[in-house]
Design brief:
Blueprint lengths: L1 H13 L10 E4 L9 H14 L3 E3 L6 H6 L2 H14 L7 E6 L2 H11 L6 E7 L16 H13 L3 H6 L12 H7 L3 H4 L7 H8 L3 E7 L31 H4 L5 H6 L3 E6 L8 H12 L12 H9 L11 H11 L4 E2 L11 E2 L3
Parallel strand pairs: 1-2, 1-3, 3-4, 4-5, 5-6
Antiparallel strand pairs: 7-8
Bound molecules: 2-acetamido-2-deoxy-beta-D-glucopyranose (NAG) (2 copies).
The site of one 2-acetamido-2-deoxy-beta-D-glucopyranose has 4 residues, from loops.
C-alpha cells in the first residue's frame, strides 16, 4: 500500500514541468581591482559557467580607484542600493567575496535594510577579523604613497575617510586607537556597540565558506580569513577563530553558525587569491549550484526529496547525477589565476598547463 502511494507520488512529480530556478551569485572584488579587468571577469564567468548560474560582478564607483579611497560605509551603501535594484536577485542570492570585497559583501549582508536574502557566503581570503599590515601592493607610486600615509596615522579621521583599507586595519597593540578611530570593522564585527540585527542577519546564512591560503602574505595574519587573529594587546600567539572573543562571545553569530555545522573552514594551497580550478570547483562552485536546480531534465526538487526520503532500489539512475556531475567537474585541472591586483596594480591570469 505504502509503496503504491509512493510511486504515484513520484510519477506525479516527475511529470511536472521544471519550474524551479537557480539563484544567482554576486561577486565583490578586492582592492585595486575592477569588474572589467580580465582576471575578475574571467573568474566570474568561470564560476557562472561551472555552476550554471547567473553571476554578477558588482562594481562600486569606478573600481580600482574607489576600492582604494572610498570609505567602506559608502562602498557598502552603493553595493546595497545596487543589490536592491537588481530584480534578478529578489528570490535570494549567494555572495562570493574576494579579499577586501568580503567586507563589502558582509556589509551588504549585515547592514542593508530591505535587501533580498543571502543564502551562501563564500569568502576567498577575506580580512574578516582585521588586517595588521598594509596590504602588499608592490612598488608603484600609489603604493609607496599609501604605505607612508598609513604609517603616519591609520586611525586619524583623514585616513579613515580617504583610505579604504584603513577601515579594517586592526593593530593589536593600539586597540584604543582602533576603538576610537576605526570607522568600519568594529561595526561590522559588532565589536563594541552591538546591534542584534547584524548578528541575526549573519546567522541566517545557510553556509559560510571561509577559504584561507597556506602561502598567504597579503593578509596578516592569514588566519583572519577564518576569523582568527592576534590576541588583544599582543602580536602572539595567533588565536584560532574559536579562541577569539568574537567567537566565544558570539558577536555576530559565527559561533551560532559553526555550532549548526554551517561554517566550512577551508585551507587551500597557494598565495593570496591564487586558487586552482579544482579548489574553485570544490569549495566555491558546489555552493553556487542550487539544490533546486535540475542538473538533468528529470531531476526536479520533488524527485530528489523523494530520493532522499526512501531507499527504494527502483529509484531511477538519473537521480544520482549530481554526484557524478560534480566529480567530473573536479577531475579536470587547469590554470592558476592571479586575482586581486596587489602586484603593481596589475591583474594577471597565468596559464599553467
Ligand atoms: C540596528 O540595525 C538596524 C538595521 O540596520 C537598524 O534599523 C537599527 O536602528 C539598529 N539599532 C541600533 C540600536 O542602532
Ligand atoms: C593548511 O595546509 C598546509 C599545506 O597543506 C598545511 O601545512 C597547514 O598546516 C594547513 N593549515 C591548517 C590550519 O590546516
Amino acid at each position: 500500500m505504502a509503496s503504491v502511494t509512493l510511486s504515484r507520488f513520484f510519477i506525479f512529480f516527475t511529470l511536472l514541468p521544471v519550474i524551479t530556478h537557480s539563484i544567482p551569485f554576486v561577486l565583490f572584488h578586492g582592492v585595486a581591482d575592477s569588474c572589467t579587468k580580465k582576471g575578475v571577469k574571467h573568474f566570474t564567468d568561470l564560476l557562472s559557467e561551472w555552476s550554471n548560474t547567473q553571476g554578477y560582478c558588482i562594481e562600486i564607483g569606478n573600481g580600482v580607484w574607489d576600492s582604494w579611497f572610498m570609505p567602506f560605509e559608502d562602498q557598502v551603501e552603493i553595493a546595497c542600493e545596487k543589490v536592491k535594484s537588481m530584480s534578478e536577485l529578489n528570490q535570494g542570492y549567494n555572495i562570493v567575496g574576494l579579499s577586501q570585497g568580503n567586507l563589502v559583501g558582509r556589509g551588504v549582508l549585515e547592514f542593508c535594510d530591505g535587501a533580498p536574502p543571502v543564502k551562501n557566503f563564500i569568502s576567498v581570503a577575506g580580512p574578516h577579523a582585521g588586517e595588521a599590515s598594509v596590504p602588499f601592493c608592490g612598488t608603484g607610486l600609489m603604493c609607496v604613497l599609501v604605505d607612508s600615509l598609513i604609517k603616519l596615522a591609520i586611525y586619524s579621521p583623514t585616513l579613515q575617510e580617504h583610505l579604504a583599507p584603513a577601515n579594517y586595519i586592526k593593530i593589536p597593540t593600539d586597540l584604543d586607537g582602533y576603538r576610537e578611530g576605526c570607522k568600519f570593522l568594529p561595526k561590522l564585527n559588532n565589536e563594541f556597540e552591538k546591534n542584534a540585527t547584524y548578528k541575526e542577519r549573519f546567522s541566517s546564512l545557510q553556509n559560510l565558506v571561509l577559504i584561507m591560503f597556506d602561502k598567504e602574505t597579503v593578509l596578516v595574519p592569514k588566519e583572519t580569513s577564518w576569523f582568527g587573529y592576534f590576541p588583544d594587546g599582543a602580536w602572539d600567539p595567533i588565536l584560532p577563530a574559536q579562541e577569539t572573543r568574537l567567537y566565544i562571545e558570539d558577536w555576530i553569530g559565527l559561533r551560532t553558525l559553526d555550532e549548526a555545522g554551517r561554517v566550512k573552514f577551508v585551507n587551500v594551497s597557494g598565495r593570496h587569491l591564487d586558487i586552482s580550478d579544482d579548489d574553485m570547483k570544490e569549495y566555491i562552485v558546489s555552493y553556487l549550484i542550487d539544490e533546486n536546480t535540475p542538473e538533468s531534465p528529470v531531476l526536479t526538487k520533488s524527485t530528489r526529496q523523494q530520493h532522499s526520503s526512501s531507499s527504494d532500489e527502483n529509484t531511477p539512475k538519473s537521480l544520482v547525477l549530481t554526484k557524478s556531475t560534480r566529480q567530473q567537474h573536479s577531475s579536470s585541472s587547469g590554470f592558476i589565476r592571479k586575482l586581486g591586483g596587489q602586484q603593481d596594480l596589475q591583474l594577471k591570469v597565468i596559464q599553467k598547463l
